[in-house]
Amino acid sequence: MSISLKHIINYLIFLLFSFFYPNLVFSDAATNWQIGFQDPATPVMEGIINLHHDLMFFICVISIFVTWMLGRTLWHFEQKQNLQSSSLSHGTLIEIIWTVTPAFILLIIAIPSFSLLYAMDEIISPAITIKTLGHQWYWTYEYSDYISESNEAIIFESYMIPEEDLSLGQLRLLEVDNRMIIPVNTHIRVIVSASDVLHSWAVPSLGIKCDAVPGRLNQASIFIKREGLYYGQCSEICGINHGFMPIVVEAVALPNYINWISNKLSE
């Protein structure tokens, strides 16, 4: 298997952060004054970040070129240097260039963006289906694939932990009493809806943001590549406590997930 320069650079950066910040390898929650992305945990989020970097390259090149062109225009066509205005009104060649070039750039951008768009909407034979229901102001999770002896599915509510009840190391306004537990390296379908008003189930590290609409079932696909805790929040203004209904997804190894399901069924 060939190793590209990009993979080598990413590995060196990973080693550097691991050495200086041994307890902060991955950023899976929002931080103060954050302007970048959280670390990706799914192929979709990796694609979003790569597309962003590709677009930023074009944006930087275009911004520098336009700034340089405007600067030269202001300098060379200043009133004192051009006492008599130019009579030139049309330039066929330059008009063709500034029409074709942006169209060509947009065509280049469209190819990876459409590919990513289709990847985000694709649902690949999910092994697990989880229904997420938004309420004012908490979430309900239903694992309907598993039925207990009393013929009931696994259903539980997830509330934010108040600040006075937080343990050392827990994140303010982001921790919940019942996390959504899912296994890694497994195709998972999340069905999202709401019981009252509009909500939005969003977890940045997973590259997912799915609207929760009353009376409608929206679905999204998740494939997590590494274990960890992933934090999100409702991303639709849903009332006075909109900022107090966080989301915590805990990705665990498959044996641990099976044990968790067994314990839930026996409760």
Mean pLDDT: 86
Q: Would you state the CATH class of the largest domain?
A: Mainly Beta
Largest sheet: 5 strands, mixed
Give the low-confidence spans. Answer: none
Note the gap between the termini.
Answer: 48 Å
The helix/strand series, from N terminus to C terminus, equals HHHEEEEEEEEEEH
Largest sheet: spatial strand order: 3-2-1-5-8
CATH architecture of the largest domain: Sandwich
**What's the CATH topology label of the largest domain?**
Immunoglobulin-like
The CATH superfamily of the largest domain appears as Cupredoxins -  blue copper proteins
* Strand-residue proportion: 15-25%
Tally of domains: 2
Indicate the overall shape.
elongated
Helix content: 25-40%
- Class computed from helices, strands and strand pairing: alpha+beta
- Count of strand segments: 10
Gyration radius, rounded: 25 Å
Keywords: Copper, Electron transport, Membrane, Metal-binding, Mitochondrion, Mitochondrion inner membrane, Respiratory chain, Translocase, Transmembrane, Transmembrane helix, Transport
GO molecular function, one term: copper ion binding
Domain Cytochrome oxidase subunit II transmembrane region profile: 29-124
Cofactor: Cu cation
